[in-house]
Design goal:
Elements lengths: L1 H19 L3 H51 L1
Length: 75
């Protein structure tokens, strides 16, 4: 029972802090900031994907080059 009452009191305090710090305006501002952050993350993900593809192509070229050299030496 004490935990329940403690939870209710904490909930009420959180609600009052929410109203005190701007309520809906604060939520709207946080939402806009999160949207901007999401857009930046998408750009970074695309950059990382392209970089990974470039690195993988370079590695594959080296591996196939070494395999071809090994086959030529073996023949």
């Amino acid at each position: 029972m004490i935990r329940f009452l403690f939870g209710v009191i904490v909930g009420i305090l959180i609600f009052f802090f929410f109203l005190y710090f701007g309520g809906g305006k604060t939520v709207k501002k946080l939402g806009q900031d999160l949207t901007d952050t999401g857009k930046r993350m998408e750009v970074l993900e695309e950059f990382i994907r392209k970089g990974k593809e470039d690195v993988m192509e370079g590695i594959e070229k080296r591996i196939f080059k070494k395999e071809k050299e090994t086959q030529k030496k073996g023949q």
